[in-house]
């Protein structure tokens, strides 16, 4: 068995302190098996027997630059125009 292989009998993962929370590190082989990377979300759920299951949620689709710009423009059209902060600062400045 190589360093990146998952053992058939399961894994014991250590719990560590991370700020005011607790964290579990996933070995790279398990992360690959789950198909997760940094920033992804994991789902934990228990069944009637009290067994907990860990699964990866579906990753969000990556947006291309054109889609991001379209969404930003759509969002900006919903925002009401306001007075210019720069104009207010210049008008109230003491020279």
How would you portray this structure in words?
The protein has 95 residues and is an alpha+beta fold. It has a domain at 15-56: Pemi-like Protein 1, Chain: D (Ribbon), CATH 2.10.260. The protein is 31% helix and 19% strand. Strands 1-2 form a two-stranded antiparallel sheet. A two-stranded antiparallel ribbon has the order 3-4. Strand 1 and strand 2 form a beta hairpin. The longest helix is centred in the last third of the chain and has 14 residues, at 65-78. The radius of gyration is 24 Å and the shape is elongated.
Note the main attributes of this structure.
alpha+beta, 4 strands, elongated, 95 residues, Pemi-like Protein 1, Chain: D
Which structural category fits the helices and strands?
alpha+beta
Oligomer: single chain
The CATH C-level name of the domain at 15-56 is: Mainly Beta
Strand content: 15-25%
Task: Please tell me the CATH architecture of the domain at 15-56 by its name.
Answer: Ribbon
The biggest beta sheet reads: 2 strands, antiparallel
Mean pLDDT: 84
Count helical runs. 3
Total number of β-strand segments?
A: 4
Could you tell me the CATH topology label of the domain at 15-56: Pemi-like Protein 1, Chain: D
Order of helices and strands: EEHEEHH
